[in-house]
């Protein structure tokens, strides 16, 4: 266990080493108006080494936010527009025959970048979506007989449109579970939209984004995030929340039992802990508090809970179930 002196020193170190977050915020705000929640969640994924799935209506700056963040970090960026005719080789690369050398050589695909934007990921069929699985989980790609390590940091940021269902392929559970966060994006406020109109008309939205942070800074920050102190009571709190989604009857949540088909996987517990540490780091703090866990709980769990037909008939969502669990589980 860490002593109070250790935590105090760690808290001071994190406060100093997280100063780059202010520079990032200033740079991204040149282009992005409002949407602080979305940008914060993208940063959470970056710092916690987890992938992010953004779900929202068209025109809510999902793609723009991802491109802006990658430009301000100074990492390599690639965008893959998912369409029904896309092939796995279009993502990871393929073997091509080199006439001059009389042999097959590897041509790497757009997956070989620090930031990979999988735009409208639900437009492509399952075989294409599954091409991302190895790279997302193991940070490597296999082409032919060769396996290539992906450069760090590696982050998949996917978007999907929730309203156009014709011609789309819902992500399978194995795929969604690879995403640390599923973030739902809402409309901007009226004041924010007023600023968006003014910036668009004046041409300010085309401002150049400068890299203010290096990938080395991000890698160092990730190491610090892992060092953020988490008390055993917080660990138990996380486990109680996840286990309540699996066995609601054991936690006096009998009414949820017929509404849930499956609960959070062990990956949910790991990601909830890592995201809580990253959230504490974003708040420039060296220790996790219960509010950190509660703040990111929806984004970590909403895509990891299966709801029954009964829940759908009663218009009960994953968010409603998570809120019920959070209200029932005792806060340490």
Could you name the key traits of this structure?
Helicase, Ruva Protein, domain 3, 332 residues, Rossmann fold, 2 domains, five-stranded parallel sheet, globular, two-stranded antiparallel ribbon, 15 helices, alpha/beta, 45% helix
Description:
- The protein is an alpha/beta fold.
- It is built from 15 helices and eleven strands.
- The protein has a five-stranded parallel sheet with strand order 2-5-8-1-9. It has a two-stranded antiparallel sheet with strand order 3-4. The protein has a two-stranded antiparallel sheet with strand order 6-7.
- A hairpin with a 2-residue loop joins strand 6 and strand 7 (146-149).
- The mean pLDDT is 85.
What's the structural blueprint in terms of helices and strands?
Layout lengths: L3 H14 L2 H9 L7 H12 L3 E5 L6 H12 L3 E5 L7 H4 E6 L4 E6 L6 E5 L6 H4 L3 H6 L1 E4 L2 E4 L5 E6 L12 H4 L2 E6 L5 H13 L12 H13 L4 H15 L13 E3 L3 H17 L7 H12 L4 E2 L1 H5 L4 H11 L4
Parallel strand pairs: 1-8, 1-9, 2-5, 5-8
Antiparallel strand pairs: 3-4, 6-7, 10-11
Helix content: 40-55%
Beta-strand percentage? 15-25%
Provide the succession of SSEs. HHHEHEHEEEHHEEEHEHHHEHHEHH
The computed structural class is: alpha/beta
CATH architecture of the largest domain: 3-Layer(aba) Sandwich
Span of the ends, CA to CA: 18 Å
Number of helices: 15
Quick recap of the structure?
With 332 residues, this protein is α/β, with parallel strands linked by helices. Helix content is 45%, strand content 16%.
